[in-house]
Structure formats: C-alpha cells, structure tokens
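SAMPLE LOG
Freezer: B-3
Tube label: C17
Construct: single chain, 406 aa
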Amino acid sequence: MKSYTPIYSHETDVYNLEGFSPQVVDSSYLESLGVKVTPNQETLKALETGSRLFKEKYDKRILIPRPRFEEIAKDPEEIHPEIHNYTGRCPTLTFEINPVGGCGVGCQYCLVTDGDHQRELTVDLNYPLYVKRLLEKNNGPGSENRNHYYYFSPKTEAFQEASLFTGVAHRILREFIAHFDRFPESRARLFIASKAGARHLTIEHDGESVLDLFQRLKDRMQFNTSVSIMPSGFRDIIEPFAAPIQERMEAVKLCSERGILANSALVQPIFTPCLTDEAIRSFFNTLHEAGIINYKPEFLTVCPENLAMLGQYLGTFDKQMERRLYESYLMPSNSDHRKQRGRTAPDRDLSKESIRKMMAYTDSLGMSVSLCYWVRKQLEISEDMIPLINRNGFQCLGYQTNLFGG
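STRUCTURE (predicted):
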C-alpha cells in the first residue's frame, strides 16, 4: 500500500466543520425544518437508516478516502469491455476506461458508490495493455471501423493520484497515440470527463506531462471539465480532494492554448436549491471566461440514504436550502423519477424549470446545452427546446460530433 499527499485538499472538511454534528433525519427532523411534503413510509425509513449510517461513519472517520493506493496487475485478457450506455439510446458506441478501483477525490454524492469511500484504492498497472488490446480489436484489420468513443473515466477520476503517480494515466494516453500512428484513419475518439485542475495536467511521467500527451492527441479527443453550481464552502466539504473551480478552469485554458478541444463542460451535480439568479450568473460567467461554449446540466440523482447526508451538509450553510432539497426529492409523486441504479432525480417540473432558468442566462452568452436521452424522456423536452445535436455540434453527454469530420 502506497501513501501519497493529495494534489489538492481543503482547509475545512466534514470532520472539522464548525458546529456540525450528524442528526437522525426522521419525520420529526423534517417537520422541524418546515418541510412541506410528506414522504411515504419506505422513503422515511431509508432516510433514517441513511442518517444513522452517516453518523456511524462520521464517528469512525471513514467518510472520505484515505490517501493511499495498492498497485495490482490484472491479466489484460481477463478484463472485459464495459459499454457506457445507461439509457439504451446513447448516440454512439462508447467503451469505458476505468484503471482505478475506487476514487481518491471522495465526492460525497458519488454516483458509483453513493458517497461510500471505505474501499481501498487499487490501480491496475496492466490496464494500458488492456486498452491496447481493446483499440486493436475495435480498429484493426477486419474491424468495421465505425465511429465510437472511449470514455476515460465514468466510474472514477481519470487524473487522480493513483493513476498519475504510477504513470498509468500517461501510459493509457500513449496507447491512443500509438494506435493513431498505426491506424491514421481510425474512427476511434477519446472522451475525457474530469475534475482535474491545472496541477494534475502538469504531472510528468517519463518526461511528458498529461498536457503534453493531450497535445499529441488533439483533433482525436475532447476534454470535458466537470464542475457544479454551489457555494465554495459546500463544494469543499462534498468534494474533499477535488481541484477548486478556478484550477479546473485553468486546466481548460491550458488545454485550449494547446489546441485541445476543451470547450464543453459537465455541470454536475446540480443541487436545485443552489440555483439562485446570482449563482447562475457568477458560475456561467466563470465558464464563459474560460472558453466554455457548451454544457450538459445533470441534476443530483440520489438514493434516500445518501440524501440524508447531503441534506445535512447543505444545511450547515443554509437551513432553507436543506429544506428545499428534501422537498424537491421526497414528494410521493416523484418516487418514479429514477435514473440508473434506482437513484431519484428532483421533481420533474422543478427540473425543467431549472433548465429553462439556466438557459435564459446562458443563451445570452452564446452557450448551447446538450442533454441525454433519459432526461429528455423524463422531462418531455423536445428538439425545439434543445436539439439532439445542438448548434455547436454537441450531443447527449457533450460528445462533439464534429470530431469525426462529418
């Protein structure tokens, strides 16, 4: 097991948050907040169970990842390809690249773990060899050579300490470079979604930084920064080892300066109570100044157990926001508004209203919006409101269709 010093950390975390103490979220707690909806008994039980588990983890200090990882070496032939297609209607074939087991960023809303970070991190030193085999299988002689993506990484942070300090992230990028050297006409493209800050991208391995390798892949890849709209103090708590938003925007600028496509952002997760007019203006101005022209809004989807924890974190900064968070998820009529792995999204009408609210401002900045099929279907959003492929050439998760040259 190798220990490391996180590249980014914050002065305040959940363990030293002034005045904070986990509570049991039950009907009495919701009533004391003034919550105006009455969840069903199953949901109430899940909230109470989740809040008790939260307190237990808080007391044991196991809420955020420990800065250490184990190096492993799997047989590349025994790693099975995973297709990134939650909805069954994704626009193109997309293979997942997930070299790290677990994640060192520690997001408390994590879609993969529901915010549970007790698992020890592992990094597969042989994973780049698997990527080489996967590329050859899908793009070598006899393949259909159809348009497709490799998504690095939907289940963990691509550029975290475990993948950077071992050189695994760099070696994966080098496999793509070597692939395109062998097959110049390959229709493979690399899609990266990351919370990386500028310092992540300047980490070197064998004399080359991530940014250097990106530059060698330009025109064959896109880098999508991932960042959310929320108070900075709240972000520090629920993303304990993530780069600050200013550092993520600096990463975008560094990419753009080198000709790397980096002008789309994943705006996630969106906590609807945080969408004040002032917050929307400030947030999107920051993205606009960094050169972002497209964004995919993705609302927080959450199980009730995890909601009990996230609500209390938010309530530390604003109790009214905590109340509104519960109200937007817990009404019985919203119980079927579920995404992958059974997570609940916020009230449909509120979600659609929130998208319109963001668009009302971002349209003035010339920014376009991309949405996945599931959101379109759930919210009944037509192509008249948001085209499948928008005016800037982005689709679904934020894939840039122009990468394939028509």
